[in-house]
User: What shape does this take?
Amino acid sequence: MHEMSLTESVVEILREEARRQGFSRVKTVWLEVGALGGVEPEAMEFCFDVVTRGTLAEGARLEIIRTPGRGYCLDCGEESPLEERFGACPKCGCHHMQMTAGDELRVKELEVD
Assistant: This one.
Protein backbone atom coordinates (compact mmCIF):
# COMPACT_ATOMS: atom_id res chain seq x y z
CA MET A 1 0.00 0.00 0.00
CA HIS A 2 1.85 3.09 -1.21
CA GLU A 3 -0.65 5.32 0.58
CA MET A 4 1.22 4.61 3.82
CA SER A 5 4.47 6.11 2.53
CA LEU A 6 2.55 9.01 0.94
CA THR A 7 0.88 9.71 4.27
CA GLU A 8 4.23 9.57 6.07
CA SER A 9 5.46 12.21 3.62
CA VAL A 10 2.43 14.39 4.41
CA VAL A 11 3.22 14.15 8.13
CA GLU A 12 6.83 15.15 7.41
CA ILE A 13 5.53 18.20 5.54
CA LEU A 14 3.45 19.06 8.61
CA ARG A 15 6.53 18.78 10.86
CA GLU A 16 8.55 21.03 8.56
CA GLU A 17 5.77 23.62 8.40
CA ALA A 18 5.40 23.52 12.20
CA ARG A 19 9.10 24.31 12.57
CA ARG A 20 8.92 27.03 9.94
CA GLN A 21 5.68 28.67 11.10
CA GLY A 22 5.86 27.95 14.83
CA PHE A 23 2.66 26.00 15.46
CA SER A 24 2.47 23.02 17.80
CA ARG A 25 -0.69 21.18 16.82
CA VAL A 26 -2.53 20.41 13.61
CA LYS A 27 -6.32 20.30 13.87
CA THR A 28 -7.34 19.82 10.22
CA VAL A 29 -5.47 18.98 7.03
CA TRP A 30 -7.01 19.63 3.62
CA LEU A 31 -5.30 17.31 1.16
CA GLU A 32 -5.82 17.72 -2.58
CA VAL A 33 -5.83 14.33 -4.33
CA GLY A 34 -6.09 14.04 -8.11
CA ALA A 35 -8.58 11.53 -9.48
CA LEU A 36 -5.93 10.20 -11.89
CA GLY A 37 -3.08 10.01 -9.37
CA GLY A 38 -3.57 6.38 -8.38
CA VAL A 39 -4.24 7.23 -4.74
CA GLU A 40 -7.17 5.71 -2.84
CA PRO A 41 -8.69 8.37 -0.56
CA GLU A 42 -10.08 5.77 1.85
CA ALA A 43 -6.63 4.23 2.25
CA MET A 44 -5.14 7.69 2.87
CA GLU A 45 -7.72 8.30 5.61
CA PHE A 46 -6.90 4.99 7.29
CA CYS A 47 -3.15 5.59 7.01
CA PHE A 48 -3.50 9.14 8.32
CA ASP A 49 -5.03 7.90 11.58
CA VAL A 50 -2.21 5.37 12.00
CA VAL A 51 0.74 7.53 10.92
CA THR A 52 -0.25 10.60 12.96
CA ARG A 53 -0.31 8.76 16.30
CA GLY A 54 2.17 10.40 18.63
CA THR A 55 2.75 13.36 16.30
CA LEU A 56 1.61 16.98 16.23
CA ALA A 57 -1.28 15.83 14.01
CA GLU A 58 -2.64 13.12 16.30
CA GLY A 59 -6.43 13.41 16.34
CA ALA A 60 -6.44 15.83 13.41
CA ARG A 61 -9.19 15.65 10.84
CA LEU A 62 -8.22 14.82 7.26
CA GLU A 63 -10.35 16.45 4.57
CA ILE A 64 -9.68 15.10 1.09
CA ILE A 65 -10.45 17.30 -1.89
CA ARG A 66 -10.73 15.26 -5.10
CA THR A 67 -9.40 17.06 -8.19
CA PRO A 68 -10.95 15.83 -11.45
CA GLY A 69 -8.78 14.89 -14.40
CA ARG A 70 -8.34 17.31 -17.31
CA GLY A 71 -6.30 17.04 -20.45
CA TYR A 72 -5.21 19.01 -23.50
CA CYS A 73 -5.45 17.29 -26.89
CA LEU A 74 -2.31 17.78 -28.94
CA ASP A 75 -4.28 16.97 -32.11
CA CYS A 76 -7.39 19.18 -31.91
CA GLY A 77 -6.16 21.71 -29.32
CA GLU A 78 -9.14 21.29 -26.99
CA GLU A 79 -8.97 20.98 -23.22
CA SER A 80 -11.54 18.62 -21.76
CA PRO A 81 -12.31 16.33 -18.82
CA LEU A 82 -10.13 13.24 -18.68
CA GLU A 83 -11.60 10.12 -17.08
CA GLU A 84 -8.51 7.89 -17.38
CA ARG A 85 -4.79 8.59 -17.52
CA PHE A 86 -4.22 7.57 -21.14
CA GLY A 87 -7.76 8.11 -22.39
CA ALA A 88 -8.87 9.37 -25.76
CA CYS A 89 -9.90 12.95 -26.42
CA PRO A 90 -13.68 13.15 -26.02
CA LYS A 91 -13.82 15.73 -28.84
CA CYS A 92 -11.78 14.07 -31.63
CA GLY A 93 -11.06 10.55 -30.33
CA CYS A 94 -7.26 10.79 -30.63
CA HIS A 95 -5.00 9.49 -27.87
CA HIS A 96 -2.54 12.39 -27.81
CA MET A 97 -3.81 13.84 -24.54
CA GLN A 98 -1.50 15.75 -22.24
CA MET A 99 -2.78 15.67 -18.66
CA THR A 100 -3.24 19.17 -17.22
CA ALA A 101 -4.95 18.26 -13.91
CA GLY A 102 -5.83 15.23 -11.87
CA ASP A 103 -2.51 13.84 -10.65
CA GLU A 104 -2.04 16.26 -7.73
CA LEU A 105 -1.21 15.23 -4.20
CA ARG A 106 -0.59 18.26 -2.03
CA VAL A 107 -1.40 19.81 1.30
CA LYS A 108 -3.76 22.61 0.32
CA GLU A 109 -4.58 24.08 3.73
CA LEU A 110 -4.03 23.56 7.46
CA GLU A 111 -5.91 24.50 10.59
CA VAL A 112 -3.41 24.72 13.43
CA ASP A 113 -2.89 25.84 17.04
